[in-house]
């Protein structure tokens, strides 16, 4: 039975309780823009939890506010603070729960340092929980972190909503789980184990657990084009985006004209889903005839799961979550093997010894015994003893990559248990990476402990592999979220920790507050410092033998003098930790050129992918590309938006035009007025005219000299954007307008807009004016008075602004062509207008103070005090109001307009763990069948692992090559000799280039005059190639065709001319 009380000698340490709380004091509602940018604050005396949006913005993009609020109330117990336990604790604390209790009754051993990044050799002999508590507290001061070093009691369990155990026997786990399962409400119970390259997770969230959001995806919506009066009814949607519905989904309808019966808000089930249509399980024969309009919205219903307690689930595990479909029969075997391992520990009192044949055989015998005792329907027909033996041999070891991977998985399960967000793991998950192990069996001598921090890893891989890891030379590109996790893993693994080993990490970015919620090597006092420097220093603190060198250079063609041939040739392996495709493609091209293995990974919210790129064995990263994101046509964004993304795209464009580009253009004129005017006259086109119009508006016709004038400008902008332009648009295209084909102009997806009327009593209107006026004042260097944020005083100032009447004009051209790339049209008198604008400008600038300069404002999404997002949200929501599009709050606007990539610590940890398991294979030189590429989604959860794709092969006569090949031609050849070299191989080289320059093409007769010249001289003279004295070769790209005139992609050609 569980003890009822804690032991009296139990120690507890309390960190700073960080739940930030804000009290909204009763007031007259006079604050226009507060700290968190709530638009006019309403009187409210309630206490509420404040979410630090600066810190948690990327996490909020994944979870949303409601989930974050639930997390803030969660109390989590984590028992077992070895490598896995500390990884889980790190991820849960970064997520921002209310409190975490760290429990461990054991003491630190040197063995633990293989995976526990907060232990040092000085901690050996200290209690594990106490030894790492202070460092864990630093991760998030908003989380109350306490420690417990005594027995697990019912009182201790009852104080928590989620409990996680990483190192207990099966009997003890069953006892604890039964207590948690029968509690009301149930305490979520998670048991997780790492045994070498094997791992397991079990979840029990109680007899009835509600999943609020199964997958975390936004409900799908679509614009309706037609609905039939049938049974079932056919719903057809506009073809601008494919539908993402599945048979059985529920949808609701709104804004349907004619068939108004569908607007009742009742969820309706769909079937027969196709890319642009679906059937409705409704009889609409008696409904009104469909006329126009309509939007469908997917309805996401909660899901209730009934978990079995561990005792029952062991005998009736149900379906296992698969990770590798090549191992379809592996989970049932591991389910049995882990039970056998627990029985071995109970019977013998220890784990099986590494590479011990007798212990391995005993473990297999136990597995057979347990299997025979099971019911007939649960028995395995065969037991793969080799897998059971591998489990036993490394069972005492906790490896850093496995801890990182499972720390991410279990950390996410804790978040699910606390919030109901995403589908829990139901209920067992087993994983192994036996492909990472050496191909040859290890001997007791190979795994003999060396009394070092790497002994646990040596027990799994042997001392020879450890030596290879320590002497390896790595290049880590990026020191952000992925980079921090990689540095931690690599330091713990001993990579580049030997006398000949070294690791170079580079990142040109600096630390921001928003990084701290997932880039765990950084602290708030590091804000503004270089990421690579801080991260490498923190990794060296984890393992002082880590030979890490930090650089602040972006890896690109511009830094090839830093990352030169000598640098690349000296590497064993490259690890990418990047956040953009272009940088990945460049690194990939260098790895292909220098024949270096590349480990690639990326994350997006709960999703991650990893890719292994091995010279000559796999395709390279650039061999496959994701399709480009679909961009809305320019005319849609500027005149016909039908969703909030269009409105925010327009708002971001207007922000940059008004506050950054136009002031910068004005400064360009002010710095060199004569040159600027000459250039405009010479261009003489619509673009030059438009730029000049903006400069004239900025410096002459709309120049502001006081904050009151900024308010006037902002108020008139409101009128122009949200009233006058809409009036002109609907005058040019009335609601009953038709196209040249006689069809209604305002048909889906177009939405007929309505002009807005400004009310100073409307908080949204007033907030727009406040943000616009403040930023306008910033560009002119005008000080902002204190009353600018006082709603009453600001309203008084705005009401004094005289707004001229507006009358729509005839003949105004509005772009409706979806293929148009500009909304500006040329006119016959551009030259004349440019002349007139220059005259106005010349007169106007005489009134400017001496040395006047504008202050362009560059958009910065992560500073909540700069009013940038206030203006963009205001622009977008007012425009949305014009077109009856649902508005969004400031945070949602920030995600979309700021193009924020959703990111959480759990996914990052899992991705880097998976990559480091592949790193073992690279060091061991495994064949391609043992590598794995992975796609995973922790929200579902889903794991999909597969062998890498081999490179595409090309053949010609007796030649065979892939992208990994490079043809090296020795000799200082002339152009003629080079062409003959290809001719001897049945190829006609019809074009030769070096860099961006064409050295030869057979369609140009003059190029034949170059036949007798050395190719290296052509490269120097034409391509201006600068070849360093120590370089023996240069590269050219050759386009070839065979004797039949078919083009062939031949490899890059290197000419060794020295």
TrEMBL record:
Q: In which pathway does it act?
A: Protein modification; protein ubiquitination
* Keywords carried by this UniProt record: ATP-binding, Ligase, Nucleotide-binding, Ubl conjugation pathway
SMART domains according to UniProt: UBA_e1_C
Q: Where is the active site?
A: 635 (glycyl thioester intermediate)
Q: Carries keyword Transmembrane?
A: no
User: What are the Ubiquitin-activating enzyme E1 C-terminal domain coordinates in residue numbering?
Assistant: 931-1053
A single Gene Ontology biological process assigned to it is: protein ubiquitination
What's a GO cellular component annotated to this UniProt protein?
cytoplasm
Q: Which reaction does it catalyse?
A: ATP + ubiquitin + [E1 ubiquitin-activating enzyme]-L-cysteine = AMP + diphosphate + S-ubiquitinyl-[E1 ubiquitin-activating enzyme]-L-cysteine
Question: What's the subunit arrangement here?
Answer: Monomer.
Known role? Activates ubiquitin by first adenylating its C-terminal glycine residue with ATP, and thereafter linking this residue to the side chain of a cysteine residue in E1, yielding a ubiquitin-E1 thioester and free AMP.
Classification via PANTHER family: UBIQUITIN-ACTIVATING ENZYME E1 (PTHR10953), UBIQUITIN-ACTIVATING ENZYME E1 C-TERMINAL DOMAIN-CONTAINING PROTEIN (PTHR10953:SF4)
Spell out the protein name for this chain.
E1 ubiquitin-activating enzyme
Q: Which organism is it from?
A: Physcomitrium patens
């Amino acid at each position: 039975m569980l003890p009822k009380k804690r032991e009296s000698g139990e120690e507890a340490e309390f960190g700073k309780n960080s739940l930030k709380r804000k009290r909204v004091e009763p007031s007259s509602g006079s604050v226009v823009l507060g700290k968190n940018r709530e638009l006019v604050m309403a009187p409210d005396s309630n206490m509420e939890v404040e979410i630090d949006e600066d810190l948690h913005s990327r996490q909020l993009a994944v979870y949303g506010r409601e989930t974050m609020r639930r997390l803030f109330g969660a109390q989590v117990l984590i028992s077992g603070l070895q490598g896995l336990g500390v990884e889980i604790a790190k991820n849960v604390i970064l997520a921002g729960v209310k409190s975490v209790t760290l429990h461990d009754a054991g003491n630190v051993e040197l063995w633990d340092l293989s995976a526990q990044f907060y232990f040092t050799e000085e901690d050996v002999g200290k209690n594990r929980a106490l030894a790492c508590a202070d460092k864990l507290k630093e991760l998030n001061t908003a989380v109350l972190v306490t420690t417990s070093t005594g027995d697990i009691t019912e009182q201790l369990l009852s104080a928590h909503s989620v409990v996680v155990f990483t190192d207990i026997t099966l009997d003890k786990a069953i006892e604890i789980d039964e207590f948690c399962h029968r509690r009301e409400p149930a305490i979520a119970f998670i048991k997780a184990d790492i045994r070498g390259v094997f791992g397991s997770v079990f979840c029990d969230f109680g007899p009835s657990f509600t999943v609020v959001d199964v997958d975390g995806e936004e409900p799908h919506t679509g614009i309706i084009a037609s609905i039939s009066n049938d049974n079932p009814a056919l719903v057809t949607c506009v073809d601008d985006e494919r539908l993402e519905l599945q048979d059985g989904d529920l949808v609701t309808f709104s804004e349907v004209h004619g068939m108004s019966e569908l607007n009742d808000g009742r969820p309706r089930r769909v079937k027969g889903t196709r890319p642009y249509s679906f059937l409705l399980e409704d009889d609409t024969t008696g409904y009104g005839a469909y006329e126009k309009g309509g939007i469908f919205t997917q309805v996401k219903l909660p899901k209730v799961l009934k978990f079995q307690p561990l005792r029952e689930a062991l005998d009736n595990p149900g379906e296992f979550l698969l990770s590798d479909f090549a191992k379809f029969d592996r989970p049932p075997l591991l389910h049995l093997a882990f039970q056998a391992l627990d029985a071995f520990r109970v019977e013998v009192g220890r784990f099986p010894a590494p590479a011990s044949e007798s212990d391995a055989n005993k473990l297999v015998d136990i597995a057979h015994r347990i299997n025979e005792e099971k019911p007939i329907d649960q028995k395995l027909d065969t037991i793969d003893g080799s897998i059971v033996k591998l489990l036993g041999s490394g069972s005492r070891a906790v490896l850093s990559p496995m801890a990182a991977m499972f720390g991410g998985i279990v950390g996410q399960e804790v978040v699910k248990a606390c919030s109901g967000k995403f589908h829990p793991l139901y209920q067992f998950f087993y994983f192994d990476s036996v492909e990472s192990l050496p191909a040859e069996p290890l001997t007791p001598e190979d795994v003999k402990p060396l009394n070092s921090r790497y002994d646990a890893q040596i027990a799994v891989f042997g001392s020879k592999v450890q030596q290879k890891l320590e002497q390896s030379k790595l290049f880590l590109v990026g020191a952000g979220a992925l980079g921090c996790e990689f540095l931690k893993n690599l330091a713990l693994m001993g990579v580049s920790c030997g006398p000949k080993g070294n690791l170079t990490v580079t990142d040109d970015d600096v630390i921001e507050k928003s990084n701290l919620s997932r880039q765990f090597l950084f602290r708030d006092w590091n804000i503004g410092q270089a990421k690579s420097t801080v991260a490498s220093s923190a990794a060296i603190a984890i393992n002082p033998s880590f030979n890490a060198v930090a650089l602040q250079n972006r890896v690109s063609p511009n830094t090839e003098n830093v990352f030169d041939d000598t640098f690349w040739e000296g590497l064993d392996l490259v690890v990418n930790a990047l956040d953009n495709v272009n940088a990945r493609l460049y690194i990939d091209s260098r790895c292909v050129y220098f024949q270096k293995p590349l480990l690639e990974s990326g994350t997006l919210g709960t999703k991650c992918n990893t890719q292994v790129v091995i010279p000559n064995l796999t395709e390279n990263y650039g061999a496959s590309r994701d399709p480009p994101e679909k961009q809305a046509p320019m005319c849609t964004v500027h005149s016909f938006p039908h969703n909030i993304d269009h409105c925010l795209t327009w708002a971001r464009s207007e922000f940059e035009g008004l506050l950054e580009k136009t002031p910068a253009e004005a400064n360009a004129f002010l710095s060199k007025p004569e040159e600027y005017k000459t250039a405009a006259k010479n261009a003489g086109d619509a673009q030059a005219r438009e730029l000049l119009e903006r400069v004239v508006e900025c410096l002459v016709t709309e120049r502001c000299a006081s904050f009151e004038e900024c308010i006037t400008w902002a108020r008139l902008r409101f009128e122009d954007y949200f009233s006058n332009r809409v009036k002109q648009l609907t005058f040019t295209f009335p609601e009953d307008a038709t196209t040249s084909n006689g069809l209604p102009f305002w048909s889906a997806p177009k939405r007929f807009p309505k002009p807005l009327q400004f009310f100073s009593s409307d908080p949204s209107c007033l907030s727009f004016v406040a943000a616009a006026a403040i930023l306008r004042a910033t560009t002119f260097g005008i000080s902002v008075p204190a009353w600018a944020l006082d709603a009453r005083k600001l309203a008084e100032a705005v009401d004094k602004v005289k707004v001229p009447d507006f009358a729509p004009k005839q003949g105004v051209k509005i772009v409706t062509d979806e293929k148009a790339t500009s909304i500006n049209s040329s006119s016959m008198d551009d030259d004349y207008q440019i002349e007139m604008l220059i005259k106005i400008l010349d007169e106007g600038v005489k009134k400017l103070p001496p040395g006047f300069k504008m202050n362009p404002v560059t958009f910065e999404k992560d500073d909540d005090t700069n009013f940038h997002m206030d203006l963009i949200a205001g622009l977008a929501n007012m425009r949305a109001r014009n077109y009856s599009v649902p508005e969004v709050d400031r945070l949602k606007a920030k995600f979309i307009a700021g193009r924020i990539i959703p990111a959480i610590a759990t996914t990052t940890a899992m991705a880097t763990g998976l990559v480091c398991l592949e790193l073992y294979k690279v060091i061991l030189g495994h064949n391609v069948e043992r590598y794995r590429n992975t796609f995973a989604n922790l929200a579902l959860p889903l794991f999909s692992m597969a062998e890498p794709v081999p490179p595409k092969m090309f053949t010609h006569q007796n030649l065979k090559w892939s992208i990994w090949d490079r043809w090296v031609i020795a000799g200082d050849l002339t152009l003629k000799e080079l062409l003959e070299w290809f001719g001897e191989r049945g190829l006609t080289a019809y074009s030769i280039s070096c860099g961006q320059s064409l050295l030869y093409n057979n369609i140009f007769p003059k190029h034949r005059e170059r036949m007798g010249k050395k190719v290296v001289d052509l490269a120097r003279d034409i391509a201006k190639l600068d070849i360093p004295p120590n370089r023996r070769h240069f590269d050219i790209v050759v386009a070839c065709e065979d004797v039949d005139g078919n083009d062939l992609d031949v490899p890059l050609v290197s000419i060794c001319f020295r």
